[in-house]
Design a protein that fits this description.
mainly alpha, Cytochrome p450, two-stranded antiparallel sheet, 6 strands, Cytochrome P450, heme binding, oxidoreductase activity, acting on paired donors, with incorporation or reduction of molecular oxygen
């Protein structure tokens, strides 16, 4: 399916669904979290707005999952020859292949997650990266020099160039660390009693990992509130050296069994986008005076709430 440059139906479905999920994911957002008995009251009851909102958000999520899938499947059935993950797995399902892990319901939900799960966080990380480059033009110039020395004129960087462009990798890592788009990750409930450093944690307790603190620990990252990709670079070899500063991937993608399953794809997507942006443009502040958002002005959720202006100059 072709995505329109503006006002695309499928993009809007995803954005609407994500908006509700983001609000619901904020710990303590609704009174029912503190007074669990409220989950038994009817939706019309005062104080039960969470039920009405949940019903509305559920409809948005189901539309985001089902509408694009139905349209894409319809195109396949009408003879569209395009090869896709949907076509390939539908053929396996219809053929009853034993090694196929998908049912049609699993396939439908998986395809929806592939797009929607990281759309807001990826956009926010790119916005954070551009902000860092605006504040530190010397970083941009250094990255452009490295790209010019590796990539052929008239070409964009690709993943084959990644090992030869460590400074681009350092920029992406620093963007993920500097303003983590999910500072408290996803809350989890303990399935059994546990103990941590003398603290008893009962089964059912909600655990919130302070990823923001981990990624701004002064003992791990010198001047943690500064955008500084060079913290990951060995000055002698010019290569990535995580003994100098820990890879932020240890925290920004979550932990354990519930770690982000799309973290590798997300990183490579960010790397390609940021590398191409740096290769193609000079990123500058507009000529008129603008105020860039400070750390305190950026809401610590999954998106930058304060807009800023930047000029992309060819």
């Amino acid at each position: 399916m072709q995505i329109q440059q503006e006002n695309d139906r499928y993009v809007k479905l995803s954005e609407d669904a994500n908006r509700g999920a983001i609000i619901a994911a904020v710990p303590g957002r609704f009174l029912v979290e503190f007074i669990p008995i409220l989950k038994y009251v009817p939706a019309w009851f005062p104080g039960a707005s969470f039920k009405r909102k949940a019903r509305e958000w559920y409809k948005m999520i189901r539309a985001m999952v089902e509408v694009p899938y139905a349209d894409a499947k319809g195109q396949i059935e009408s003879g569209n020859p395009t090869v896709s993950i949907l076509r390939t797995n539908l053929q396996k399902i219809e053929a009853g292949e034993k090694d196929n892990a998908f049912t049609e319901d699993v396939l439908r939900n998986t395809l929806a997650v592939l797009y929607s799960a990281a759309s807001d966080t990826s956009v926010s990380t790119m916005a954070t990266c551009i902000l860092g480059l605006l504040e530190h033009p010397e970083v941009l110039k250094k990255a452009q020099v490295q790209i010019d020395g590796v990539v052929k004129p008239g070409h964009f960087p690709d993943l084959d160039d990644e090992p030869s462009l460590p400074y681009i990798t350092a920029i992406v890592k620093e963007a993920l660390r500097w303003r983590d788009v999910a500072p408290f990750g996803v809350p989890h409930a303990l399935s059994m009693d546990d103990e941590y450093k003398g603290y008893r944690l009962p089964a059912g307790a909600i655990i919130i990992a302070n990823q923001w603190a981990m990624l701004h620990d002064e003992d791990v990252y010198a001047d943690p509130f500064e955008f500084n990709p060079d913290r990951f670079i060995d000055p002698e070899t010019g290569k990535i050296d995580y003994s100098r500063a820990r890879d932020p991937g240890h925290a920004c993608f979550g932990f354990g069994r519930r770690i982000c399953p799309g973290r590798f794809m997300a990183f490579e997507s960010l790397w390609l986008t940021i590398a191409s942006l740096i290769a193609a443009f000079n990123i500058e502040k507009p000529k008129e005076k603008v105020t860039l958002p400070s750390g305190e002005e950026v809401e610590r959720t999954v998106e930058l709430t304060h807009e800023y202006e930047a000029s992309l100059v060819v």
